[in-house]
Amino acid sequence: MSVITMHAAQRNTESAAKKFEVTCSGCNLREICLPKGLDATEMKRVEQVVYARRRIHRGEALFHAGDAFSAVYAIRSGFFKTTVLNDDGREQVTGFMMSGELVGMDGIGTGCYNGNAVALEDCEVCVLPFALVEEISREIPALQRHLHCVLSREIVRDHGVMMLLGSMRAEERLAAFLLNLSKRFTRRGYSPSDFHLRMTREEIGSYLGLKLETVSRLFSKFQEEGFIEVNQKHILILDNAGLERLLGVKH
Amino acid sequence: MSVITMHAAQRNTESAAKKFEVTCSGCNLREICLPKGLDATEMKRVEQVVYARRRIHRGEALFHAGDAFSAVYAIRSGFFKTTVLNDDGREQVTGFMMSGELVGMDGIGTGCYNGNAVALEDCEVCVLPFALVEEISREIPALQRHLHCVLSREIVRDHGVMMLLGSMRAEERLAAFLLNLSKRFTRRGYSPSDFHLRMTREEIGSYLGLKLETVSRLFSKFQEEGFIEVNQKHILILDNAGLERLLGVKH
DNA sequence: CGACCTTTTGAACGTATTCAACCGATGTGG
DNA sequence: CCACATCGGTTGAATACGTTCAAAAGGTCG
Fold first, then answer.
1. A152 closest CB neighbour out of B92, B109, B137
2. What is the pLDDT of residues A81-125, one digit of tens each?
3. pLDDT (tens digit per residue) in A55-65
């Protein structure tokens, strides 16, 4: 492995860089988005996976359920909701995804996306044609490993949501939701305790298996109890430990 | 990573085959479990992934949450429940898995299994060391593809459960549950309308986000309405279309 | 500025839960 | 092999949690 020569990597990437401005190595999300310990050659190769960038305006869909699957998307900036639809038209929010996270993996198995991904604010994504991802991950074990980790972590995340929906009370669900957002914002260098929700009460409710009125009431209740301060979509967490206690306490 | 001696894998598989009776090519689950269109050489190589078989008695765990991850398991026979645990000890059933399906994929990302897999009857599984799965799927694109499909389909399944838990009424959840079991039994050559539940009401309830009493009441209700006949764990579906109608109708 | 969407809050309601009793099936030890 | 203990399942009655319906206020955007 260490004997691989560098000549392929020696070619100037200037043209590619101009076209798509693709430099994973320079992306501040690389620690979230990419495997650790890639050498320069591998990094170059991995950057070839990023076929293009795409901008999605707030309210627009990155893809719809049923669209032909060809790529997964790494979120560079912005905030998405992912949803699935019932036969009878009901919509369920399955997740809120932010920068550095991957969306579209639900399409690998069937060749069609299983759900929608809708931008909750103006977004930019990296387009990763999946055939290319597979090809390059056959060459670079670290990338293969990373892909499998990402897929597996999505499964683990989903199981967490099942726990939330199946066993938790409304209060606990909202506390878990806030703490989860807080943690993910922290990871990205934002304040853990002061943030802006990009989704409506209805979308939060759908995600948490609650009605929008219930979500609203709970926000008010949390405020009364001094856990948070709410101003429309602006959230201030005043008592993190208090929220965590809410989660730990048996019904 | 540098000098892996897996060329020991070139050893004649005869001894391994004797030891473990491993012949995926002869397994009646291969259409559920394996990719299509493997040639004989590839099939031989894929069979090397099956490191061993393991028998699990009813009530025993195939793995526990927190156990070090090293393999995924293909269920050869029997029935498992998979669960996750809360900080405060609550348990949530995340799935019921049957022959031909894979369990343990929740461990890939973290190196530890995220949940438990417990046998609901005596089971036999094929042990697939994941490092080997990754190695061989780098060589055989069809296997790589298949692995990704399986992971993706698990995500899609989980999203379906989220829809069920987040947006459906108790009645709809149980109807969906029965129809799902029916479909999977059919695929395996069993009766779509006459089967034996291997899980308790409590486990069904946990999976569906309901209490065991609610599940029991609903079974009785479905029986009164002529959709099914229930005798303890024995289920007879009398009106499949009726159950489907329950799902399609907005509350 | 006005129309529309989102959020908040109240009151009545309904679904699923809780608590409790009982029954039947299963399995174990005397 | 039976008696008994245990576990799983059913059913009823009271309760609680979250929903539904409704009205009004606060934001946002053309």
1. B109
2. 999 999 888 999 999 999 999 999 999 999 999 999 999 999 999
3. 999 999 999 99
Please name which of B90, B104, B32, B94 lies closest in space to residue B61, comparing C-alpha atoms.
B104
Q: What is the dihedral of CA A65, A200, A237, A95, to 10 degrees?
A: -10
Other CB atoms within 10 A of residue A126 CB? 24
CATH number, domain with residue B189: 1.10.10.10
Which chain B residues touch A138 with a CB distance below 8 Å? Answer: 137-138, 141, 144
Preferred mutation among B70, B108, B149, B212 to probe A, highest tally of A CBs within 10 A: B108
* Residue that the structure tokens 């296997």 belong to: B143
Helix axes A201-208, A141-167, angle to 10 degrees: 90
CA–centroid distance for B132 within its chain = 21
Distance of CA A187 to the CA centre of its chain: 13
Which CATH number covers residue B123? Answer: 2.60.120.10
Residue B194 is assigned to a structural domain of this protein: yes
pTM (two decimals): 0.91
Please give the residue range of the domain that contains residue B234: 170-246
* Other CB atoms within 10 Å distance of the CB of residue A189: 7
Token pair listed for A197: 């929700």
State the sign of the Cα–Cα–Cα–Cα dihedral A91, A95, A96, A98. negative
